[in-house]
Amino acid sequence: MARYWLICLGLVLVIGCSKSDSSSSAKTQSGSDAVADASADATGFPRECGDYTVLGILTDNQDNSKAKENAETTLLRHPDVACLVGLWSQNTPMILAGLRSSDALGKVAVVGFDEHPDTLAGIRDQSVYGTIVQQPYAFGYRSVQWLTTMAKGGEVEVPESGMIIIPHRSITGANVNEFAADIDAIKSGKGPILSGDEQIDGSGIRVAYITNSLDPFWTLADAGCKRAAEQFGCEVDVQMPSSGSIEEQKRFLESNVAAKVDGIAISPIDPENQVGMINDACEVTTVICQDSDAPASRRKFYLGTSNYLAGRAAGKLIQEAIPEGGEVMLFVGKMEVLNAQERSQGIMDELAGKPIPAILQGN
What we know:
By secondary structure, this protein is an alpha/beta fold.
C-alpha cells in the first residue's frame, strides 16, 4: 500500500492546494507534467495554500546559470515574493547568488535543502532561514553495508512498505555550528561507524554506488561508502554522472552488470522512464534505490529520506520564516525525479494545513 501511495504521489500534485485560476480546472494533465510546466502554463499555479501562495516551481536542469537566472527573474516578475525555496542542494546557493545580484539579499526569506557550504554560511549570516538535511553519509554507508550483507547471503530487515527511512533534520541558526562540525568530521574521514558491532566479511565483494549528478551532497555519500568498505573489507566504486542524464546512468548500470558486481545502489534521475533499465540490472545482480526511489521497479528496497515528510519540515520552516504568509517560489533541478515531486507536495500540504497521510504517520 505504501508503495502504491508513493507511485501515485505525483498524480495528486495538481490538487494539493486550491488553484487561483479556476478556469484551468477544465484542463487535464498529469501532476508531474503540470509541475514541470508550471513556469510556462497557468494550469497548476499559482496555488493558494492557506495564507501562502505558491507561485510555481522553476526548473534549471542542474545548470547553475539557469538556476541563478530563475531567482533573478522571480524577483523581477514577483516583487512581493516573500520566500524562495531551493529543493536541491545547489538551488539555495544559486538563489543567494541571484539575491546578491539583485540587491535583495536579506530582504527575502530563503529556505533550502541539504548542507551545501554556501547554505550553511547563509544560515550563519542570517541570509538563509534554515535548511532540511538528509544523511547522505548514511545513504552511502548503509548501501554498502546492506549490499554486502545480501551478497554474502545475509538478510536485511525491510518494512512491508519496501522503504528503509533515514530521518531528515532541520538546521537553523540554533544548531548550524554543531551540524557543520559533524560534516567536517565526515569529510576528514572520521565519520561514525553506523554498523555497531556487526561483523561482515566482505572480502571479494564488489558493489557500485551510482549518484544522480556531481554535487557536494554526494561527497558525503562517497565518504560513507568508503568508510563502510573499509569496515567490511569490500570494494565500492562510486559513480557520478557528470551530465546528470539517464543515458549516463544507463551506461553505468550496463557496465556494472557486465563487470558482474555483487550489488548496485542507484539514485534514479527519471524513475518512471528508468524502470526497464533497473529491472534489467535486477535480473543479474541485487539493486537498491537510494536518495530517490523507482517504486515501480523490482529494486530490493528504497533507502533514504521520506522526501514527502522532509517537504513537510521545509513547509514548517517557511511558516517560521514568514509567519504572516505571502508568496513563495520553489526551485529545483528536475521535476522528473520523484524526490522533487514529493518535497514540493509536502511543502504545499504543510502550508495548506493538510493532515499527514495515515500511511506516513509515525515515520
